[in-house]
Inverse folding.
């Protein structure tokens, strides 16, 4: 195997683990799914055409969900294309179907076929249609064929995973840099809480609360992120100037910051903010991806470039690998360390802002224990706690491994207390696998 | 000749990408000192690792007392009486000498260690070695020479019949070296076989009975020392004729470039002043602890000076960190390349670029192609034996590692270069290349300050010699054919 390929596998091997876990959950959540895409609609209409001559009238009955709605739209298109008349399209509960059938019966029309889903077909109003509405004839009820597909791999679910992990993943970028320099930052969870509280409080008190403008919201979020960056810088300064261990310094900072968050919010949740604030945390846009996910991917791309192609990236690895040798080669070790902690603080602040946007409020209880998940994502992704090595993209994979496991367990209906045990064991196994790979 | 105590026959060992041993035969007799010589990468450490049970050979056999044996682990080798003392000792720094000696073989009863008993045995061992040291101090507080004695005592406590010593004198003063020689001769008289791995030919001629030369994973010659010539030995090692061990040059030093006045730092460096001219190689000689490395570190900004003035090319420099020194055109090759010269976990290309990133990048982004080309030029010029640039620095032999460190500074085209023990732990072939390089730099007008503990090297390379003792300069010698090692030693011990 050529050395380049071997190195690639070595650096990003956890991707294999992620894929395997995904496969396991795909198998565990296999279920018969009604097909709802255009192809399924075509097949359904083809089945109807075989039983109903051209010009026949078809009732479409679906539930008011987005998925069913897409099916209904596709059916209408296909029915017209097949030369069949659409008697009515009902997107609602059984009462709506009954109302529609009533109207059709009173108008004296006939229904030659009913295009329904598995669920709607089981409604009494349709299954007993013959007895309830004898004048409409005895139309056959045709449902889309089913396909066996894992619930895990449905597009909505995958996007949900990405959206849920976005905050932790973004915070993990900064943590990766800090860990690569041989340090650690335990304060990220509390910083996120402080950021959420600061941003929402500024919006509520300084920018007009529920009437706040976009500029006001942006300013508040920026201020919150900057505050967290400054606190990160303070940690970094104490670590580099007083030569104290990062574990202790950031542990102290974690407590201080948490206290500040509680003080700033008077222990309450701050919710007097505009509805539009959720744009970042809940909105979707580009290619149907949630904004938080787009931001996450953009930040990872930028961080990857920074670590792998810039001078600063080289300095970070060198400082982590051998700070004395780095110093003697002219690397500004203190400045590099400071940068890592400031970056970690800024990204933690950003995480807090996204959380506030997702939950439309700021509370000092946010981010509790997040530092552990963030560190787990970094370590599972292949970065050694001893410093000097690790890849940013590896952290993304690590974050996804954690998110996939949690999501998969939910889908497989594993009880929540058991989930905690499983998550802990899987993190251990992932790191073990990584260690063995490096032998 | 008596039957050998230990025989290695046809030992073959490969690692991914490299064949370290290609069928090596070696005989070791009781009561002899066998010198094992070879260039870095020739296979010496691998052979000793096989002997010590750390590696299993791919092929070949080991005979102890004429019986075929195999060591599947270091414990088995130790139990059979093979003791290996590495260059970086295997002592636990926080434990005392006694505890280290009996580590792993405490004769404990119900989990309790017989401390008084062990202490008595340790004291006896040291008495037999003719050494005195504090048995209750943690080994981190012992000097290198004392730590080495602890290692030897440990080997003797296990009734070792073969003791392998890897670069044993690298960090010893010459007085300690003499003492070590006495001990080794004593071990020899007791019937113990000693394998002595070293690059210092003077020592080998003084101490060894026989010498085995390895080259490219093969045994290319086993000779008795008596009657063996130095040139012949070097040629065996290198496989070619070496005209001069220390290359000659027509030294014509020019105007003063580096002027140092009143450099001081506590007791380590006291009022040191000197001048280095363009094209001159100035050697700092002296015993370990004389303040030579400390002086270089002060000049380079690695430590803070209490007082002193540094003037380069007429300009007064305010050097407060290595960054300042590097910006002024200085470069430092540290004494310990693994701890201070290289980031072992990174590739050699990344190590090379570290002080050169500004020149190799644009707007903060590193130009990968320019970097690879620049490093490639140095790989060729310094004749580095590396399969590819992405090799991790820790996988290279000592000589190649030193070349990477050199390449770092050569790329910067430094005006002043500080070499601290530039050829320590490096084979003859690579040494010669480094000497040629130093001459070349001098010829181009650079100022070179070299710290070296090897007097032959000092006398072979320097234009002027400054001798230091206890932080001060005790003497200055203009080098020439009349200068002797004794002259230098006298000043070093003044």
């Amino acid at each position: 195997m050529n050395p380049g390929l071997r190195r690639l596998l070595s650096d990003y091997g956890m991707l294999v683990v992620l894929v395997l876990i995904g496969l396991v959950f795909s198998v565990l959540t296999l279920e018969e799914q009604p097909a709802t895409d255009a192809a399924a609609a075509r097949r359904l209409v083809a089945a109807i055409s075989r039983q109903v001559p051209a010009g026949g009238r078809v009732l479409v009955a679906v539930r008011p969900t987005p998925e069913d709605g897409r099916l209904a739209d596709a059916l209408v298109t296909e029915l017209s294309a097949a030369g069949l008349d659409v008697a009515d399209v009902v997107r609602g509960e059984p009462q709506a179907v009954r109302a529609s059938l009533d109207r059709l019966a009173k108008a004296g029309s006939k229904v030659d076929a009913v295009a329904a889903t598995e669920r709607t077909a089981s409604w009494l109003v349709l299954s007993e249609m013959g007895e309830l509405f004898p004048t409409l004839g005895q139309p056959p009820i045709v449902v889309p064929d089913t396909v066996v597909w894992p619930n895990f791999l449905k597009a909505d679910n995958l996007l949900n995973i990405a959206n849920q992990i976005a905050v932790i993943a973004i915070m993990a970028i900064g943590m990766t840099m800090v860990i690569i320099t041989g340090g650690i930052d335990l304060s990220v969870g509390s910083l996120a809480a402080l950021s959420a509280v600061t941003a929402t409080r500024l919006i509520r008190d300084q920018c007009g609360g529920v009437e706040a403008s976009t500029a006001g919201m942006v300013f508040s979020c920026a201020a919150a992120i900057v505050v967290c960056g400054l606190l990160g810088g303070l940690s970094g300064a104490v670590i580099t100037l007083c030569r104290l261990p990062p574990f202790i310094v950031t542990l102290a900072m974690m407590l201080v910051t948490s206290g500040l968050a509680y003080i700033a919010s008077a222990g309450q949740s701050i919710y007097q903010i505009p509805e539009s604030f959720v744009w970042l945390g809940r909105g979707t846009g580009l290619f149907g991806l949630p904004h938080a996910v787009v931001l996450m991917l953009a930040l990872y791309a930028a961080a990857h470039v920074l670590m792998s192609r810039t001078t600063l990236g080289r300095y970070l690895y060198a400082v982590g690998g051998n700070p004395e040798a780095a110093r003697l080669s002219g690397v500004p070790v203190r400045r590099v360390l400071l940068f890592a902690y400031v970056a970690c603080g800024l990204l933690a602040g950003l995480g807090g802002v996204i959380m506030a946007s997702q939950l439309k409020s700021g509370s000092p209880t946010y981010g509790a224990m997040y530092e552990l998940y963030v560190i787990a994502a970094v370590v599972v992704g292949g970065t050694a706690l001893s410093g000097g090595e690790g890849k940013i993209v590896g952290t993304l994979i690590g974050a996804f491994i954690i998110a996939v496991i949690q999501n998969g367990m939910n889908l497989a209906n594993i009880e929540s207390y058991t989930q905690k045990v499983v998550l802990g064991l899987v993190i251990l196994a992932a790191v073990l696998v990584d260690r063995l790979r490096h032998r | 000749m008596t039957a050998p105590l230990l025989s290695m026959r046809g030992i073959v060992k490969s690692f991914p990408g490299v064949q370290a041993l290609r069928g090596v035969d070696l005989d070791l007799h009781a009561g002899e000192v066998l010198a094992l010589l070879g260039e870095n990468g020739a296979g010496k450490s691998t052979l000793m690792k096989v002997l010590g049970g750390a590696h299993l050979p791919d092929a070949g056999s080991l005979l102890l007392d004429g019986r075929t044996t195999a060591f599947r682990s270091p414990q088995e080798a130790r139990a059979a009486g093979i003791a290996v003392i590495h260059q970086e000792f295997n002592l636990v720094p926080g434990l005392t000498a006694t505890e280290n000696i009996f580590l792993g073989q405490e004769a404990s009863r119900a989990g309790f260690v017989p401390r008084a008993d062990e202490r008595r045995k340790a004291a006896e061992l040291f008495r037999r070695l003719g050494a005195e040291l504090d048995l209750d101090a943690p080994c981190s507080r012992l000097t290198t020479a004392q730590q080495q004695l602890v290692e030897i005592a440990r080997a003797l406590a296990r009734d070792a019949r073969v003791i392998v010593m890897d670069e044993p004198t690298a960090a010893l003063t010459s007085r300690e070296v003499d003492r070590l020689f006495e001990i080794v001769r004593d071990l020899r008289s007791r019937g113990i076989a000693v394998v002595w791995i070293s690059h210092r030919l003077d020592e080998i001629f003084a101490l060894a009975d026989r010498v085995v030369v390895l080259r490219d994973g093969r045994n290319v010659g086993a000779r008795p020392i008596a009657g063996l010539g130095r040139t012949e030995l070097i040629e065996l090692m290198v496989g070619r004729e070496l005209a001069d061990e220390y290359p000659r040059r027509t030294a014509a030093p020019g105007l003063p470039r580096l002027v140092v006045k009143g450099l001081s730092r506590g007791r380590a460096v006291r009022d040191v002043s000197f001048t280095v001219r363009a094209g001159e190689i100035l050697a700092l000689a002296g015993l370990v602890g004389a303040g030579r490395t400390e002086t270089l570190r002060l000049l380079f900004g690695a430590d803070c000076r209490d007082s002193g003035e540094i003037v380069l090319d007429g300009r007064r420099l305010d050097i407060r960190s290595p960054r300042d020194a590097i910006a002024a055109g200085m470069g430092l090759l540290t004494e310990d390349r693994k701890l201070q010269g290289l980031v072992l976990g990174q590739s050699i290309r990344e190590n090379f670029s570290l002080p050169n990133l500004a020149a190799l990048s644009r707007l903060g982004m590193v130009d990968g192609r320019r970097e690879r080309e620049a490093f490639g030029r140095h790989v060729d010029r310094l004749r580095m034996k590396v399969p590819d640039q992405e090799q991790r620095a820790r996988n290279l032999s000592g000589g190649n590692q030193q070349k990477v460190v050199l390449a770092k500074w050569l790329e910067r085209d430094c005006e002043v270069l500080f070499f601290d023990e530039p050829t320590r732990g490096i084979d003859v072939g690579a040494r010669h290349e480094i000497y040629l390089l130093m001459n070349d730099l001098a010829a181009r007008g650079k100022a070179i300050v070299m710290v070296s503990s090897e007097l032959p090297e000092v006398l072979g390379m320097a234009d002027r010699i400054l001798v230091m003792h206890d932080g001060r300069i005790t003497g200055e010698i203009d080098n020439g054919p009349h200068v002797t090692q004794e002259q230098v030693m006298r000043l070093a011990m003044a």
User: Anything to note?
Assistant: The interface with chain B takes residues 3, 7, 309-312, 314-315, 317-318, 321-322, 324-332, 388-389 of chain A (CB under 8 Å). Chain A has a mean pLDDT of 89. Residues 36-144 of chain A form a domain with the Rossmann fold fold (CATH 3.40.50.2300).
